[in-house]
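Letters spell out the chain; backbone shape is given numerically. Both lines appear below:
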Amino acid sequence: MGKMINLDREWRFHLGDAADAGYMTYDDSAWRRVTLPHDWAVEHPFDRAYASGTGYLPGGTAWYRKHFELAEEDRDKKIRLTFQGAYKHAQVWVNSNYLGSHAYGYTSFTYDVTPFVRPGENVIAVRLEHNDVADSRWYTGSGIDRPVILEIADRICFAENGLFASTLQANKESAAIRVQYRTENPESEEVSVVFLLMDTEGREIARESAKGEEGELTIRVSNPLLWSPENPALYILKGTVCAAGEEKDMVSMPFGIRTFRFDPDKGFFLNGRNMKIKGVCIHHDAGCLGAAVPKDVWRRRLMEFRRAGCNAIRTAHNPPDPALLDLCDELGFLVMDEAFDEWEGIKNKWWQGHNVYPPKHFGYGADFPLWHEKDLTSMILRDRNHPSVILWSIGNEIDYPNDPYVTPLFKQVLGNNDANKPLAERLYDPRKPDAGRLAILAKELTEIVHRLDDTRPVTSALSFPELSNRTGYANALDVSGYNYREGFYPEDHEKYPDRVILG
């Protein structure tokens, strides 16, 4: 929306805490210069003093500062500052003004900095805190590990994430595209919007307009090119906000026309054609490159997956780098977009080697009660315009037995990776969280997703379906994900004939 400025170059970085570094006048001239995305952990040697589960690399506390200039012509503009990802517990200042904090390391977050910036020099300061490195079950990295964007627009403009386009109906002859929009209009002027659908050569295919600060319209297309892994055809959807006879704001985004559905008996259908989902799970990092992954690396990895026969990606186990989803749109990969690896309960975190007891218990579970709705909303609103995304996953293996959820239905349980688990950790203990709680949380999370996007089903990866089928957790989902439990497919398909089961 408006003018988008990438702020990735010439940040100043300091590993360690620094008193008063949030103030504009702080002297950062001796700090190291870095380019974002940046992961400070991967720059250090491996050390057994750090946690095995997160790669034997350090966390800590660190500061980033960015000096940037605004032109005089931007004095009365709407200005937003977006961080696409920063691990973790970020605190942000602009020109000495504290804007707030953001806990999760994988969701994007935006601040309206209009009241705080000025023509001339401006300073962004960011403090990150990642002191408990045994806080995950995979390498997390540490730092501002995704791009930072400054958006400059007219005061009358599209709202943040204020555009949602989806395919209502499509075949080779025709398609109907629903466009839902929301604007900001502090001047209270009469507002209208115009939406154009163009091909990649810039030729207009269709257009529709509407009046009002928010609303919905339908764009109809003849002989559409349908998006698919074999032919990832993309259009450009361009929206313009007008007021007082002038164009005030414009947004442009790729858009793919496609329909899909899941059938309990016949599986997945894309554009009316039955096909197999052949997917792989990928984390947010790129091995020795750490968590700051250049887009070309994502492209290379996707091309290797394609050569191996894959047509789908699961973002294990958190919202991904937006650049990855852009490439999945472009190259033709189906995507399961996943939100969390933990809900209220914090899983075992290995710090002395896999399954070496005792574990530590840090992680997102500590932030979930306060942050889950904000983080899930961030993921859905940011990613819902990607044609590649066909599933929202609200969680990965949340029902892992005794980790920490328990049930009186099973006196003793051994999970997939529990060969060395002590007997006391395998037994039912009523003092631990009850697995019935997961059904309540799954219902809440699913309802949040459905409110924000009524076009895609919600799934979750079940590690213990023989329990989650009985607690109601599985029933809260549109698609039941079974992890490593293929032996249950025939039996559960017979028991629950209306259920979609995805491996």
Notes: The helical segments are 295-307, 322-331, 368-383, 423-426, 437-452, 465-471, 489-495. The longest helix spans residues 368-383. The chain has a mean pLDDT of 96.
